[in-house]
Q: What sequence folds into this?
C-alpha cells in the first residue's frame, strides 16, 4: 500500500473521531517540580537540569572548541545563519566547518550546529522545530549536536513551553543525549540520535 493511501485512511479515520472532552480544571502550579526550579536565573536552572541528564551547557565558543578537539570531533556542519557568530570562530580553532549539509554523505559530519527554538529550565530540555532548524538531519545524525539559543528563549516551566508551541508540524524536546535502556536497565546513549547534546548560549 502506498504512503498516500495510508495517509488518506488515517485522515479519514481521524476526521470521524468525535470531539474530545475538555481537560478537567487543575492548578498548573501543582505540576511543577519546585526543587528543579530553584536558582537565580533561567539559564542557571536550565544548565543545572540539562547537565543532570548528561547534557553539556556552555556560554563560550572556546569551551565548545575544547570539547570538540578533546573528543576528536573536528569536522561538522553549521547553520549558515550561525556561521559568522559560531562557525567562523570554530575554524579559528582548526575545525572544518561546512554550511551546506550533504545528506548523501551524512556520516562524514562529526558535529552539527543548529538553532534551538527554545529550552525548558524545569526539565533541562531543548526545543527543536522545523521552523528554526536549518536541516533536521544535521541536528539528529551527527554524534555531537550543538543547539544554539538565547536567554530570552528559555521557558521556566513545561506548561509555559507547551503554551508557547508554534505551528511547526515537527517539534522535538531533547532532554540530554539520545538514550535507551534494555530490560536489565543498562543505559546506552547515542542510539537514536546524538550521543553528545550541547546547549550553547549566544547572548
A:
Amino acid at each position: 500500500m502506498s504512503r498516500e493511501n495510508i495517509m488518506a485512511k488515517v485522515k479519514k479515520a481521524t476526521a470521524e473521531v468525535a470531539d474530545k472532552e475538555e481537560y478537567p480544571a487543575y492548578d498548573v502550579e501543582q505540576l511543577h517540580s519546585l526543587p528543579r526550579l530553584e536558582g537565580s536565573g533561567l539559564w542557571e536552572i536550565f544548565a543545572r537540569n540539562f547537565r543532570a541528564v548528561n547534557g553539556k551547557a556552555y556560554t563560550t565558543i572556546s569551551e565548545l572548541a575544547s570539547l570538540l578537539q578533546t573528543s576528536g570531533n573536528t569536522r561538522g556542519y553549521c547553520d549558515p545563519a550561525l556561521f559568522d557568530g559560531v562557525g567562523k570562530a570554530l575554524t579559528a580553532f582548526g575545525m572544518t566547518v561546512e554550511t551546506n549539509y550533504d545528506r548523501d554523505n551524512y556520516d562524514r559530519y562529526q558535529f552539527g550546529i543548529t538553532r534551538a527554538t527554545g529550552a525548558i529550565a524545569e526539565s533541562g530540555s531543548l526545543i527543536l522545530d522545523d521552523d528554526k532548524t536549518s536541516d533536521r538531519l544535521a541536528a539528529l545524525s551527527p554524534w555531537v549536536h550543538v543547539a544554539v539559543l538565547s536567554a530570552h528563549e528559555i521557558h521556566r516551566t513545561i506548561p509555559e513551553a507547551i503554551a508557547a508551541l508554534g505551528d511547526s508540524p515537527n517539534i522535538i524536546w531533547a532532554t540530554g543525549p539520545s538514550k535507551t535502556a534494555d530490560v536489565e536497565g543498562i543505559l546506552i546513549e547515542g542510539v537514536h540520535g546524538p550521543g553528545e547534546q550541547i546547549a550553547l548560549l549566544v547572548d
Q: What stands out?
A: The longest helix spans residues 3-15. The domain at 37-201 is CATH 3.40.50.10420 (Rossmann fold). Helices lie at 3-15, 42-52, 61-71, 83-92, 136-140, 158-163.
